Amino acid sequence: MFATLMGTWWAWVILGFALGVLEVLAPGFIFLGFAIGAVVTGVLVGIGVSAGPAALILIFAVVSVLAWLVLRRVVGVREGQVKVWDRDINDQP
């Protein structure tokens, strides 16, 4: 049953939208790469790319990592966003 569900395009697209909603609830571009990977995998299955469950998971993983790296490069950590502390509050003067 699970392998059959993985072979349907709409299951991947629904997973992508669910991960997109999860990204809205927990912002930080953590789940957005996975959402993009799931939607792209769904589109590939929808246009007729014939692959087994292991190949679909591999496609999902590779596209997700690439999407995450692109998102990290485009909207990643900006200059001045991270504070570097020079001394600890517990240090004695």
Helix content: 55-70%
Percentage beta strand = under 5%
Helix and strand string, N-terminal first? HHHH
Q: Averaged pLDDT, please?
A: 86
Rg? 19 Å
Query: Uncertain runs with pLDDT below 50, 5 residues or more?
Result: none
Count of DSSP H/I helices:
4
Assembly of the depicted chains? single chain
Strand segment tally: 0
Number of domains: 1
Distance between the termini: 66 Å
Q: Which secondary-structure class do the elements indicate? A: mainly alpha
Q: What gross morphology would you assign? A: elongated
Please outline the major beta sheet.
Answer: none
Describe the structure.
The protein is mostly helical and 93 residues long. The protein has one domain (2-75). It is 65% helix and 0% strand. Helix 3 (32-46) packs across helix 4. It is elongated, with a radius of gyration of 19 Å. The termini are far apart. The mean pLDDT is 86.
